[in-house]
Design goal:
There is one protein chain. By secondary structure, the protein is mainly α. The protein is about 35% helix and about 5% strand. It contains five helices and four strands; from the N terminus they run H-E-H-H-E-H-E-E-H. It has helices spanning about 20-30, 40-45, 50-60, 85-95, 115; strands at about 40, 70, 95-100, 110. Strands 1-2 form a two-stranded parallel ribbon. Helix 1 (about 20-30) packs across helix 2 (about 40-45) and helix 2 crosses helix 3.
C-alpha cells in the first residue's frame, strides 16, 4: 500500500508539514491588503524564488485558509471553478472590477488589474 492510498491519519508526521516555500507564499497572500491583488508572478518576484506556476500550485494545494482570491492571474480573469466565490469576496472588499461585455462568455467581470494590483509597497512589518 502506498502512502497516497493511506488514510490521512496514517501518514507519517512529515507528510502533514507545510513546505517552507508554500508557507512563505501563504504569508504573502495574507499580507495583501483587502481590495487589492497580486499576480502569481508578483508573489514569486516578491519572494525572489520560483515562478507563477509554483505559486499557483502552492495556492491550489494549501491556499484555502488564506485570502486566496487576492492572488490572481495576470489577465484579471477570475479563477476558473471559483468565479462566484471570488466575485463575492471582490465585491465585499471593493476590489476594482471591469464589468464584462454582454458578448463575453458567462458575463463575468474581470479584475481591473491597473487599479487593483498591489506592488507590495508599504510592506508589512516583520515581512517574510
Amino acid at each position: 500500500m502506498s502512502e497516497e492510498s493511506l488514510p490521512t491519519d496514517a501518514l507519517p508526521e512529515y507528510a502533514h508539514a507545510l513546505p517552507e516555500y508554500a508557507e512563505r507564499i501563504l504569508d504573502v497572500a495574507e499580507n495583501i491588503p483587502s481590495g487589492r491583488v497580486m499576480t502569481y508572478g508578483d508573489v514569486a518576484e516578491w519572494l525572489e524564488e520560483g515562478g507563477p506556476r509554483q505559486v499557483g500550485r502552492a495556492m491550489a494545494l494549501y491556499g484555502g485558509a488564506v485570502p486566496w482570491w487576492r492572488v490572481v492571474r495576470a489577465d484579471g480573469v477570475l479563477l476558473p471553478g471559483h468565479e462566484l466565490r471570488a466575485l463575492d469576496h471582490y465585491r465585499e472588499e471593493g476590489t476594482p472590477l471591469r464589468e464584462a461585455s454582454h458578448a463575453s462568455e458567462g458575463h463575468l467581470p474581470r479584475i481591473d488589474m491597473r487599479r487593483a494590483r498591489w506592488d507590495g509597497g508599504e510592506r508589512a512589518e516583520g515581512h517574510i
